[in-house]
Amino acid sequence: MSSKPTGTSGVEHHHAHHFRSAGHEFDTAKLGMWVFMVQEILFFSALFVAFFIFRQKYYVDFHEASLELDWIMGAVNTVILIVSSFTVARAISSAQKGNTEGILENLIYTLLCSGGFLVVKSIEYSSKVHHGLFPFEIFGLKWNVEAFAEHPQARLFFILYFLMTGLHALHVVVGAGLFVWLYRRAKRGEFGPAYYTPLEMTGLYWHFVDLVWIYLFPLLYLVG
Amino acid sequence: MEHSSPAGTTYLNYPKGLWSWVVTLDHKRIGIMYLFSVLFFFFVGGVAAILMRMELFKPELVYGSPGQIFKDAGAYNRALTYHGVIMVFLVIIPMIPAAIGNFVLPLQLGAKDVAFPRMNLASYYLYLTGAVLAVLTMFLGGVDTGWTFYTPYSVDRATNATLMLTAAFIIGFSSIFTGLNFIATIHKLRAPGQSWDRLPLFVWSIYATSIIQVLATPVLGLTLGLVAFERIVGVGIFNPAMGGDPILFQHFFWFYSHPAVYIMILPAMGVINDVIPVFSRKPIFGYKAMAAAIFGIALVSFVVWGHHMFVSGQTSLAGFIFSLITMFVAIPTGVKVFSWVATLYKGSIHFDAPMLYAFGFLFVFVIGGLTGVVLATMALDIHLHDTYYVVAHFHYVMVGGTLFAFMAGLHYWFPKMFGKLYNEAAAKLSCFLIFIGFNLTFMPQFIAGQLGMPRRYFNYKPEFTIYNEISTIGSFCVGLGFFMALCYLVYALFYGKKANSNPWRSLTLEWEAASPPPLENFRTDPVVTHGPYDYVGEKV
Amino acid sequence: MKFDFSSVLPPAATELAHSWDHLYWFLFIVCVVFFAVVMVPLAIFIFKYRKKPGRKTDPIAHNTPLEIVWTAIPTVIVMIIFAWGWLVWRDMVDRVPENAMEVHVVAESWAWTFQYSDGRIEKNRLVVPVDTPVKLKMTSKMGDVLHSFYVPNFRVKKDLVPGLYTQVFFTSTKVGRNIFFCTEYCGLGHSAMWGEVVVLSKPDYQMWQYGKDVPLPEWIGVGGLAERMKAGEASGLKEKSLFASVSAESAENMKDRGKILFRKMGCVACHSNDGSTSIGPSMKNLYGSERLLAGGESQIADDNYIRQSIENPQSKLSKGYEDKLMPPYPGHLSELELNALVAYIKSLQ
């Protein structure tokens, strides 16, 4: 997956003038993407740290609260995302082989996976709302105080749960949008062995999104 | 987009037209746009400061009555918030990296542009959007949280803060993208022969700064986002009534904001690193140690944030660790200061404006740095925290350090940016005014602070009057000096003498390009054959 | 060794403050020395190596022994500074004295409430006996914001956080009044939220505990000047200023006493006396006017109205000010003081 683009493809790609070659551009884009990923890790890490601190402070309440989460749904989502990382990798290797059909097919699978992830998430979220476990008082919703009368800090757990999974889901939505954009470019024949940089970059982003979930799932659903 | 410009044109006049500037991908134009924006906001923030100093000229006379300038404490509190927010986020952080770095970095590397020019333009517009939104809040009632947005005040009591927090979030991404861009540029776009040990130290400092920008800013973005979110939905992790922790905000905030001050000072040190060799006609003393010190400072800067919180309610153990590690920042900083002085030894010192600002930098930065050690000493901070001693300390390092270095860099690279020379006598006079005014403004604040005068005070006890009077007079002197600088620099833009490509006879690569450079920077691809400071056996 | 550096440091009113001062002066000397170590060579080099025609530069860029020295010596010095700083911190923060007299402190925007163990409550004023360890257990009201308790003369400071107790302790060795400030920005009343730590001799303190009137001791350091200026004691006590000093007012009668109280008790933070808008209603022309209350009913602002507004403001909220937080002042303004305040407010026509 990390070989440089060579050969020719359907649409000619002109690399930007300040790069020596398409390979040079590819390498630079990759470095930029890795730096961006590091930045994203820091972005999420603040919430992870907050979670650790409050979990240590209110261990019992957090444990009780986490029992409300359906670990099966979480596991299904984990599998969905791992599969989608796999299909993204296949899309990239299709590009390397000049197989446009393969790119399109695998992008569709990836989009289906991200859609599936979001569907499962909405089922989980609406179940929480239904049980009055939505901690924010907006849209006319109220926190169900009786549900955790003896564990008031459970609300803090759910605040963090929604913040962390919500931020992650936002990244999934952005990823889905990127895959749609990539699909349209692939349809126009823009990607091939000589040039598949946007696919590679989005693939890196998507692996990161997957990785964040792989940390979120056990932390929120299992360790509690 | 055209990539080779006609002979005789410069980046200023080719491509032509206002629209070509609006959608430019040229790092030089983007740098100039940042430069003008930063200077504009500097004057806005400066006006706020002058108003504050005028207010503080006299103490409370009839307690509770309207102040000298502001109708009440609320107006003053808003002024101090805007002064802080504008100066920190809109001016000092982007000042050297975005305004000077964007212009100079690719030229110093022998590159045609930064790695991601479109991202660079996006950075600028993110900056501008955030800046406009932040200033817009002034007209919607104003924000009065202070630039530090401490909870619970910023969640429960502040007005219009949500928009300001959003503005800061947006500007944060401008900073992140700039840092990302520079890292990729430095790694991938160096000219042939431009090995790592031939990089100007300005480049090393921009590199370290970019790493900090990329790692620290996201945490601030998330933190301010959480405060905005808590304001909107009413509950969050900083609310003690809900089991949350207001001090957690301080930890998150300072985790960014301490490294942020190194985003401010490292590029400044980078400018000084480049200026001193040129104007003493000598190599910089201890190049490797200088580069290592830059990274040492950057690394340590991430683990000292708690020294802003010695009296906040964190444990003594935490204070112990933060104080100890903070002391370690002093060592590489000291190495740099001693090396700068050592560079002058047996040199041939020229007293052009950039060098005068470098001397001024040394004087005020040493004072700022030493008082930083005082504040890092746990017990001493108890008495000095949140007093004017702290205000004086950070103005000495931020204004004395970053701003003086910026002025040195601006005067040094002015001929390269605009192809013109400014009036040297006017530059020397205004440098002198700024230096004298600056010390008059902030030196008395050390004394007022250690005598007990708290900061962010609209009224103060009359015992502190004399220090405030001197400080206010000094601030007018500084204002006059900067106004003078504005005048002769603008004059030079239009009527200055034409500069040749290397008026300072510097050895770094950007001086091989024309002054000003053409669109593609170098008409023939540069090859680097010597180090950046190889002034050997010069006779002038 | 007890120097009085009152020109650049507040008078030290505790033993630990003296300790602090010693550490401070050590740092000051270190700073001056390092400043000189940098500036003196700088000045010499600037002069000696200034540009001259025909001068050849010597590209010295290394000197390993020198670099080792200027790395090692600062390392040793900052370690000493850190260690000394840690020891003083330990004495000032961690080593709580046994049998310390405990007082509870609650901060709100913008007043301080001191609650003594015998149940007494004082607003904005902490009264303690000399040479006695005192421990303050402090918090900010739930729903309020951060504040910070700072007594410059004691070199003592700590934030007050809602939902948390923080602590400071001190043993004052000087009878007198010591100003304290709020040093964590808290909004409009931040600079108005000062008070005094009154350290009485032990016999006087006992008298105060039994409710007897005790003369207030002199100010130590900052705090006295404003009062003296307004009380008309101009001789020998000029405001330190480059310009002419401000005019003083004398306190001959109840109205003036009320005016002084109006300032001292912090009323001015929220109520103007000249009709200008502030957080609370202006006192000008208040007396005798018809007040529209939050509940809808109206009332004439007579003596009782004013007294009740001071002691229990929530019962007399004016319309339009329902969300303003006037702290109540029950029980620690004497009858005489209340009368003086009413007289003053009456005079604002």
Textual characterization of the structure:
- The complex is a heterotrimer of chains A (224), B (540) and C (349).
- By secondary structure, chain A is an all-alpha fold.
- Chain A is built from 6 helices and no strands.
- Chain A has one domain (30-222): Cytochrome c oxidase, subunit III, four-helix bundle (Four Helix Bundle (Hemerythrin (Met), subunit A), Up-down Bundle), CATH 1.20.120.80.
- In chain A, 72% of the residues lie in helices and 0% in strands.
- In chain A, helix 1 (22-57) packs antiparallel against helix 5, helix 3 (71-96) packs antiparallel against helix 6 and helix 4 packs antiparallel against helix 5.
- Chain B has a two-stranded antiparallel sheet with strand order 1-2.
- In chain C, strands 3-2-1-5-8 form a 5-stranded mixed sheet, with no helix packed on it. In chain C, strands 4-10-9-6-7 form a 5-stranded mixed sheet. In chain C, strands 11-12 form a two-stranded antiparallel sheet.
- The longest helix of chain C is centred in the first third of the chain and has 34 residues, at 15-48.
- In chain C, helix 1 (15-48) packs antiparallel against helix 2 (64-94) and helix 5 crosses helix 7 (335-347).
- Chain C has 349 residues and is of the alpha+beta class.
- The interface between B and C is large, with 105 and 108 residues.
| CATH architecture level-2 label of chain A | Up-down Bundle
CATH class of chain B: Mainly Alpha
Q: List the quaternary state of the chains.
A: heterotrimer
Q: What order do the helices and strands of chain B follow?
A: HHHHHHHHHHHHHEHHE
Task: Please mark out the parts of chain B with pLDDT under 50 across 5 or more consecutive residues, or reply none.
Answer: none
Spatial order of strands in the largest sheet of chain B? 1-2
CATH-level-2 architecture of chain B: Up-down Bundle
Q: Which topology of chain A does CATH recognise? A: Four Helix Bundle (Hemerythrin (Met), subunit A)
- Mean pLDDT across all amino acids of chain A: 90
**Main sheet record of chain A:** none
N/C terminus separation of chain B: 44 Å
Largest interface, C-beta closer than 8 angstroms, per-chain residues = B-C, 105 and 108 residues
Basic shape of chain B: globular
> Which structural category do the helix and sheet elements of chain B fall into?
mainly alpha
The CATH class of chain A turns out to be Mainly Alpha
Count of separate DSSP helical elements of chain B: 15
Strand composition percent of chain A: under 5%
